[in-house]
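Worked problem 6 (solution included).
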Amino acid sequence: MPKLKTHRGAAKRFRSTATGLFKRSKAYKSHILTKKTTKRKRKLDTRTTVSAADHGRVAHMLPYGGK
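Solution. The predicted structure is:
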């Protein structure tokens, strides 16, 4: 069997945890920040995990677990 290629876009966006989940950043933090409250922007900074519905798709794109 040939080696599987990692999806490079997904590798830059997701990191795997020790328990096999994937961490991701939150959206809406790149621009138009003046109208967003400080609390909202601070909560967008935190990392969260990929939902169970999307876990299979991310795992398929990162066959070796992600960095």
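Discussion: The CA atoms of residues 35 and 59 lie 36 Å apart.
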